[in-house]
Every structure is written in structure tokens, then in C-alpha cells.
Amino acid sequence: MGFLTKLFGAQKMEGKTMTKLNIGIILGSTREGRVSPQVGSWVKELADKRGDANYTIIDIAEYKLPLLGEAGGDASGAGAWSEIIAKQDGFIFIVQEYNHSITGALKNALDYLRDEWNNKAAGIVSYGSVGGARATEHLRGILSELLVAHVRVHPALSLFTDFENGTVFKPAEVQAASVNQMLDQVIPWTTALNTIRK
What we know:
By secondary structure, this protein is α/β, with parallel strands linked by helices. Strand 4, helix 6 and strand 5 (148-150) form a beta-alpha-beta unit. The protein contains seven helices and eight strands; from the N terminus they run ααβαβαβαβαββββα. Mean pLDDT is 91; it is low at 8-16. The protein is 39% helix and 20% strand. It has helices at 3-8, 10-13, 36-48, 78-86, 104-111, 133-145, 173-197, and strands spanning 21-27, 53-59, 90-96, 120-128, 148-150, 156-158, 163-164, 168-169.
């Protein structure tokens, strides 16, 4: 018996047309020379092959989000940020480790919203000198507070083995399998949480 059948029951699933989920791939860095767009594009390419959701890259750098609460800051991008996040059913965070944690830009973008994050699922793809593991652990605590259910499988990319000279993304073959295993968890969790919000 499949996960969704166990969760919803066979009768409820019969004859019901499920619309495709919307999964946002959030680029967590705004730094000049960042490599997150390369990682995000790779994840989207792998995800699109699955055909199980609509995957969209969401780049924090495209939104004007000054430090939350900063006087005189141009927060004109906050409305658009709220709108794009609200449209998503789940997320994949592309996370880079800066000083043993996530970037200030990602923390700030998370803090700008509350309800838009609630009762959704997320996967994390990280990179850094130790695969971004410490940043991922910090992000998990933040996501829990925002009622985002984060899945266990976590592709961790090494700056030493998955990047050439730390700038050109060339992932090891095993990493693609890890992304798909993560998505195998994100999709059913997203589907289940979708019923809470409807």
C-alpha cells in the first residue's frame, strides 16, 4: 500500500484529479560571484525530469528586501516576495555555508514572512567546505519555527569535490541520486501538507 493511499485512503483518491504541486527552488545567496545559480539550475534540471511538480527558481537577489525593520530601507520587493512564496506548495533551499551558518540574506528573507511559509514541506541542498552541514542544521531550526516540515535526505555538496576551483559546479555522479531521494520525500510530504492548508 502506497504512502498516499495509507494517508488518504483508497476511496478518497479514486476519481480525484490532483493538480501539480508548485515547488520553489530558493537561491539562498546574493553575494557577488555566488555559485548558487549553477546549483539551482542543476537541481531544477533533475527535478523537471521527474514530471511530478512545477519547479521554479526563486532568486532572493531579485527582490528588494533590506534588513527587516531597518529604517529608511527600500522594501518595495516585499509584496512580490510574499506573493511568490505564497504560491508555492513546497520548497528546495539552495544553502551555502557562511561562517558555520546560513547567509544573512536567506535569514532576512525567511523573517520577512510568516503565514506564507506555514504548513509546507522543504528539502535542502547545501554546499560548503563540509558540505554545508552546519548551515543546514541552523536552517532546520528556523524552518521548524516557521512550520515548514523539512525532510531528512540532504544532498551535501563539497567545495573540494563538486566544484572546480570553488567556482565551476561539477557535481559528482552520486549527487544526482541524492537529489532524487530528497525529492522522493519532499513530494509526498508536500502533498500531505497541502490538505491542511486547503
